[in-house]
Amino acid sequence: MGGAIWKALSTNAKALISVGVLKWVEDIPIFVYGVDKDITSDLTTRIIFEPLAKFTQAMMRKYPQFTQGSHYAKTFSRQIWSPSQKRWVFKKVELPVAEDIPLILVPKRWARPGLLMSGGRYYKTSMLSYVQELRGVIDPETGELVTEPKWRLEERKEFEQGLKTIMRVTREAHVEREDLLARFREFVDRRYEPLDDDEIDKRLRR
């Protein structure tokens, strides 16, 4: 999967990277087939492993139950991304253990059960909205913008859902100084709601 992601980012998506449109890990599922919530979660966790390890250690200090009684912590050697060196390095980290498996804790406000930045969601919201605006006409009587329904646009060959359409329209919008990914991030941010404690508890018990 890593090879597929690298190939996509260094070929099809290279133009978007070079102009600074595609610049976040969370953008990858929009432009790479087969990348869903699990892979995005794994990829993100690997890159920010050291901050998560430090958070975990801070929680161990705050809650001594992690190392009391039958609970304990161990030191592990783990591959960690170094932003300053721009390469992977091995470091030793102390982590709590459950059934011989090291645990990494994640701040609850960082976690979501689903993928917020997906290709399908991007296509149906920010991308098609832009196409509607682009093709819309002003009603001479009301002065309002009249747009073609999204369902009708989806039926058109030139705007059918798929990676080729997403790439093409995103590039065309950039030429017109429209950052559709920035629009989409704002759209997602407005609708983001962190999980509450009850919802987290339910998911942990599944």
Helix-strand pattern: HHHHHEEEHEEHHHH
Q: Based on the structure, what is the oligomeric state of the protein chains? A: single chain
Instruction: Give the averaged pLDDT, no decimals.
Output: 87
Give the low-confidence spans.
Answer: none
Radius of gyration: 22 Å
Distance between the first and last residues' Cα: 28 Å
Pick out its properties.
single chain; alpha+beta; 5 strands; 48% helix; 14% strand
Structure description:
Helix content is 48%, strand content 14%. It has helices at 2-10, 14-18, 28-31, 37-47, 49-62, 119-135, 150-155, 163-175, 180-191, 197-204; strands spanning 72-82, 87-98, 101-102, 137-138, 145-146. The two termini are 28 Å apart.
What is the topology?
Elements (H helix, E strand, L loop, with lengths): L1 H9 L3 H5 L9 H4 L5 H11 L1 H14 L9 E11 L4 E12 L2 E2 L16 H17 L1 E2 L6 E2 L3 H6 L7 H13 L4 H12 L5 H8 L2
Antiparallel strand pairs: 1-2, 2-3, 4-5
